[in-house]
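Archive transcription. Copying these from loose printouts into the bound notebook so they stop getting lost. Printout 1 of 2:
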Amino acid sequence: MWRMFRLSLKSTLPLFTVLALGAIIAANRYLRAWLAEPILDEILTPVANGTLEMGAITERLFELGGIAALTLVLTPLAVLGHGYCANWISAKVRQDVDMSVARKFLNAPLSAHRASSSGGLLSRSLNDAQLACLSVTILYRNVFLYVELLIGGIALMLYISWPLALITVALAPPFGFMMSLFGARILDRARRRQEVWSSLTQRLVAILSGTKVIKAFRGEEIEQAAFDRETEKYFRRHMKVMKQSALVKATSEAMSPTLGAIAIGIGVWLALEGLYGITIGKLGSFALVLTTLYKPVKGLTQGYPKIMESAAGAGRLFETLEMEEEVPDHETAIPMNGLAESIQFKDVHFDYGQGEVLRGIDLEVPAGEVVAIVGRTGAGKSTLVDLLLRFHDPTQGSITIDGIDLRDLQRQSFLSHVAVVTQEPFLFDTTIYENIRYGRSDANEADVREAARAAAAHEFIQRLPEGYETVAGELGMRLSGGERQRITIARAILANPAILVLDEATSALDSQTESAVQTAIDTFRGKRTIFLVGHRLSTVRNADRIVVLDDGRVAEIGDHASLSARGGLYSRLINAQQTTQAQPAGTV
């Protein structure tokens, strides 16, 4: 909670404004309570005894009336300013938290994303962030004001009657002990509840992203039952938090009036005995102060459970904000000035933490070469190009560009010379035009259209109702898989990279469109270094070299003709593919 408070310290002026206006509100409230003493002792008691002289108290009446009028004017203005500034601070903290979370997600390496579920990350970025920021709202809107009211109340009670004030304070420790006991329980149960909320969010993400599969395999009832179980678990844990919160409120309702009654009872006895100079006016004023104190005490006890719940959310939020980030560039890292000679993989090993995926890859790719990476599923093809793109760093060995280790190049400079098209095309929920020029904001309309033609996308885009201004929809779902892929290929072509990686990029394309894309790739031959990851013969057969991976190692290298004639793993993979394609309908 201290860390959440520190986030609010950037708003210095609003913070001091909240404290100052809170002090004004507290002073006004206690001025009203203090007025009971002079009214009772100087006016009402003499009236009752028949000793009041109106001429002698006229000035005093105007003085007391002026104080009362001043509190009536200042209080609503102070409450207005206090509420606005408190909400401004909490909103600003939420804005900063949201920006920090987004920045963390963007800067976290792929390994961090692989280790966490999207539902868990989404829950922490939304629900936990909201819960954590609630503590700042409560702190500035209520807690600071209530603390100022408590301090002001205790000070005024000491001024009115220090014996009664000390007695009242001495009665408070049992109350504080009960609050701390309930607070620890609420914190523990709220943490467990937030864990279930992450699972619940993950279930919703799975339902939304897997709708086609769920419907195709008639899994609606299964998913509904699983979601119902998660909601039931969340309900039970939420009610455990609510139970402790209710106990806090009930304890407050029982103890606060009881402690107040005891203090007033002792005060009545002292007044009757004539001890410590306690008069009817002092006792009445003291009782009004206690009544005024009841609201902040009640507010703090009712806000305490919410703060403990917020602490649970804040803990999970800061776990997200402490996620590892991409390895920063070395101080001596240099910019990349293109690819002139070659890319070398030197004894490259990689491990995701569950056993090695790559086991000693040695490969040199001259600049301008088209290299195909093939192999069985799980051979390490995508991992190899992920290392080339520096989504991960090798656990052993190195990858060099013109003899310079990738880790010695400035990351952003290197990535500006690279473009990638993945098997699962990703589009943003914006226009096709903006999707194609993503990553190259200086491209004009002619550049975009030329790239679309090269990717065999221009014709279908022109047929859309709004052409290039058509919105692709969330994840590009308003377009077919092949259309989405052609747009991502156009995006890569427009980037005009030194290194182009096509990771199963043509697997969703029909033969005619794939042929057009292959023609576009051929225009880059000799000018750009291209890595093709694929299974289809049509994708890899025209590559300058084909690298065959098996169990994380290079099994074969050569062109299509030589590898086919060799009768090795590549030949078996191609023969199996051709046999499958040649099978008539209905055969297995």
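Printout 2 of 2:
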Amino acid sequence: MGDLGGAGLRFGLLGPLRAWYGEQELELGRPQQRAVLAVLLQAPGRTVAVPVLVEGVWGGASPADPRKAVQLAVSRLRSAFRPYTGDDPDRMPLVRVGDGYAFRAPHAEVDATAWEELLAEAGRLRDADAPPQEVRKVLRSAQRLWVGEPLAGLPGPHAEAVRARLAEQRISAKETELELDAELGDRTDLTAEAEALALEHPGRPRLTTVLMRALYQAGRKAEALAVYEDARPSLPPDDRGPAELQLRILREDASLLPATAPTNPADPATDTWQAPDQLPAGLPDFTGRTEEVEALLDRLAAGGGRAVVVSALDGMGGVGKTTLAVHVARQVRERFPDGQLFADLRGADHTPPDPGTVLVGFLLALGVDPAEIPPDTGERSALYRSALAGRRVLVVLDNAATPGHVEPLLPGSAGCAVLITSRHRLAGLPGAHQLRLDTLPPEQALELLTRIVGAERVAAEADAAEEVVRACGLLPLAVRIAASRLVADPSLTLAALAEGLCHEHRLAELSDGERTVEATFALSYRRLDPELARAFRLMSLPDAPDLPLHCAAALLGRTEDEADELLETLVDLNLLHSPRFGRYGFHDLVRAYARGRLAAEDDAAERTAATDRLLDFCLATARNADLAARKAEPAELSLLGATVASPGRAIADGAEAVRWMRDQAEVHAAAIALGCDDPALSLDRAAELADRMGAVLPERTQTGVIADLAERIARQAAARGEHGPLALAHYLRGSMLWHINRYAESEEEIRRAVALSDRQESGGQGAAGQESGGQGAAGRKSDGQGAAGQERTERVLAKALITLGSNARTHGRYAEAAEHAGRAAAIFHRLGAQRAEGSALGEFAFSAAQTGRVDEARDAAERSARLMSASGPVSAAIGRYYLARVLRLCGDPEAALDHAVGAREEFTALQVTVFAAAAGDLAARIHAEAGRWLLAVDAAEAVLPLARRTSAALEAGLLRTLGTALDGLGRPRQARACLADSLELYERLGLADESAQVRGLLSR
């Protein structure tokens, strides 16, 4: 009974009439008895005359002796209440009063009464202009009281009238709730519910407008307009709401867009917004910059009708741009209660991160499900702006390279503000307020030195202190490093430090600010002991923004405790910084200096050994993550047989595995790049690490990154003649490209992998040798010989064949797809890889069924489901989905529907988004093929938001099914809008057969 509870009498009318005393349900008897009780419950405490009871229960078909019938019903009801009354007649709630009866139990709880009280509360809140979230919360509490049709199964005019009144109240309250949903914009599944209700209750203007607005918010403008045209004949002529909304949609009224970020579609009632807090820690000894601070604070306070962009902090490296930006940002945090985002754009690097990669981090920090993040940077930027709509968030973009580097990262909400730092003035950035940051005035530079070193020590050598800050070029970074040197060595005098700095200047013939900083680095570096100096140099080797302690320890070849002590000492000396606990990175100028020292002092063997240790640790940990996330078969963890010496970091479960692989993606990419650039290392571990990235983190946010890494590995493997890594890299790149619908490129890569693997399997070189340019020593080392090498070659071949078959299936070449998948299944069967065999059999079964081999296909699908059911919940759900789609093609649609719906529920619970969308698409198609148009629309709309962010091909298929179902429901204009969108997607993907089918539907 929803929110009702307690130990007294309770009654439920919002469903079949039921009664409880405490936790004991009372037996109320026949329908006429229940109907009498229902009349009395609707008039609590008041007397209801017998004729009124008779008319309410029996209507025009009253019994021969109506009064006796009522007396008998009341008597039996009194017997039902005995567990409540016991032997005390005063507790009896049904009492005789004159010529009628009354229900008198003042503390009894009735769900219909609670329902109406909650509706009244929601009305009062709306009248008082309460926040829409509060009103909606009350309405949702009220809706939870319902368990079915009111007074279900009870006869008589009274029950019928109560049903009609409560049903109208319910649909009206639901309309209000959906309007609030649309206003807040925090439900990605709003369209599905609005569509179902509009079809179930045609002619209701409020439902029509909610559906139109939900479709418009979902980017389906043509469908939104078509809904109005289809519904117009059934709408009341005096209600102008839908017509006015049509005009606003045509004008693209911005106020129709969501006011808040979308929530997780798996739980539409839950707000998934997270208020990020990404600002680095401020410096307690921040000094000076009073005018600049005030200017920035004034600018942030003056934000008006659009996002404030402050590109005020341009200046040379080391001048203190980041420190100032963070200092100001932390002062204004309270003005931005929805959170603060921070990103180092590494604009001074040779290859700064793509804005799309930064957007992934921002979206994850805002609570967006990784599966909901699209692969395209433009789409990510649009989702980011939608997530920030109506929010007050401060965004700090540090070290930008160009205006194009930051434009995708700018919010559009008037409540947001942006602080940008750059070494160059970002001319042309719209709305930017420019502020040049110069070196510190001499007195502020001296004050900074004093605050770090101590007033007494500076006062004792005042002249030398001034020489130090002048020798530091008045650059804050240089002053901080010099001061840290003094703090670390109390015996070092300021005069000696000043002399050392001047000496470094003379040696380098320095003339500009950044070279002045380099002189400061040199002086500090020369005072490091050998172990610290080695750590300083080696930490600069990977091209990653920072390293976690675990990876840093592996890179240095030290225990974590030893590495922690070394790195914290370098942090104290301002030669490293720690952006968050347990992670260590460089200021880019310091990194450049460290790399210079690495090249000058460490030979190639030392750099190779460090890279080898880092790759070894990363691969070992990635394998641990794969075991925790997927319970992968041992052979799956090492497709090339690469050996690792490190045990890696222990990973507790799948959630930790995904977090680790996501957080270390840039570190893994840097380690792979080092492996590719070092000819002394074979590429097997780099290739396997990239493969584990794709296996453990199958998110579309990573597919492009992994595809690029695979391309880099392939280039190097071809040049070195390393056939195993070459084949794996081609397979991996092809697989990643397939998942982002780049089918032609995917097929080209996969065919290369198959050709290479076929040649290796047969023991020849042929095409593989031609592509790789011959087999060198490194290639002989990684290819592996004998039975183990043969097995690894076969595994890569079989995985490539599955993807090749999937590509053929996507383009309707089912006979070819079945041949590839069948060959892969046979290989996996020979190798004893049951889960992989089950997956290949599922692919084979679907394509075989498409060619008419239905008996063979059904047998294969059932075997696939059996094999995969023993390999964990995700694999079991995939096997069930494979079986469902084959059963549909084999003429058993109801069994197929049962498995499709079950698989969709399992995928949703497991948060496997793309398969949840695929299973929902299958269920929608089965309903449509059976002419169950309403159910088809419900099933399609429920998963369409998932498909839109996971697979363009799935989205196109769902739109086709939705269009077919809407046409069957007599909604031709909305149906054509869906089909037109489907056709556009199919043509963009180059899927000719599907495009032709949709054109046929449109031409009817």
